Structure formats: structure tokens, C-alpha cells
Amino acid sequence: MSKSHGFEPRVLVLTRGELESAAAGNPFPEASENPKSLHLFFLAGRPKQPDLKSIDALKAKTERFALKGRTFYLHTPAGFGTSKLAARAERLLGVEATARNWRTVTALLEMVKAAPGRL
After folding, report:
1. Could you say which DSSP state residue 116 is in?
2. What DSSP line would sit under 32-64, residue for residue?
3. Which of 55, 56, 54, 28 has the alpha carbon at shortest distance from 40?
4. What 3-state DSSP class applies to 27?
5. Would you say 55 and 47 are in contact if contact means Cβ atoms under 8 Å apart?
6. Alpha-carbon distances, residue 100 vs 40, 54, 81 (angstroms)
7. Residues sharing a CB contact under 8 Å with residue 29, sequence separation 6 or more, in sequence order
């Protein structure tokens, strides 16, 4: 894939427990009123040397963030698409990530809970 398209696709798989823990650890529960304002960045590993000073300097006045283990929470009430921090979070954390908004996270939780058997 890298020869023909110039990149290698990556897949990040979370267990049910990891997804449930990330949701339960949400430090911004009030964001559920506007679920698109909260994004969870699921990280490929624990950041070894996250640049929290630059993250804090880059965030807008209305934005808040928290790093808990392999999850980076970013609350962007003014919009994720216009957030400078959202665009650079992965690089500043120093680890590959995939971000999902709170609406998607809760929908995934509902699917996992409804799935037969153990995931």
C-alpha cells in the first residue's frame, strides 16, 4: 500500500473494557448536551513525552483537555473543525491516534452492550 498510495493504513482496536473505561473517565460530562463538542482521541499507546505545555498554549480560551492513560479528551465548544489544537494533538502527544466525538462513542457503547456474547 505504501508504494502505490504513499502511506500505510493503520488500525486501532479497542476492547470493550477499554471503550467503557474511556467513556467512564470522561472529565467533561456536561459536554453531553452538545456531543459533537467533545472528542476522545484513542491513542495507540501511552504518550512517553507529551508536549502538554504546547498543548496548553495552543488551545483556544474556550477549549479544555485532559490526558488519561491512552485517551486524550478534547472539549471544543466553538467547534472541532476550527480547533488548532485538534489539528495538532496527535503530533504534540507523540503517538498515533484516532478521534471520535462523544455521540459516536456513546453509539459504539450501545452497540457493544447489545452485541451477543463477549467482545
Report:
1. S
2. GGSGGGEEEEEESS--SS--HHHHHHHS-TT-E
3. 28
4. coil
5. no
6. 5, 22, 13
7. none
For residues 114 and 119, give the distance between their C-alpha atoms in angstroms, rounded to a whole number. 10
| pLDDT digits 0-9 by tens, 20-72 | 999 999 999 999 899 999 999 999 999 999 999 999 999 999 999 999 999 99
C-alpha cell at 113: 452492550
Cell of 75: 472539549
- Lookup: cell for 22: 474511556
Cell of 57: 498554549
Helix (H, G, I), strand (E, B) or coil at 66: strand
Dist CA 33 CA 36 (whole Å): 9
Percent of the chain with pLDDT over 90: 81
CA distance 5 to 72: 29
Give 75's DSSP letter: E
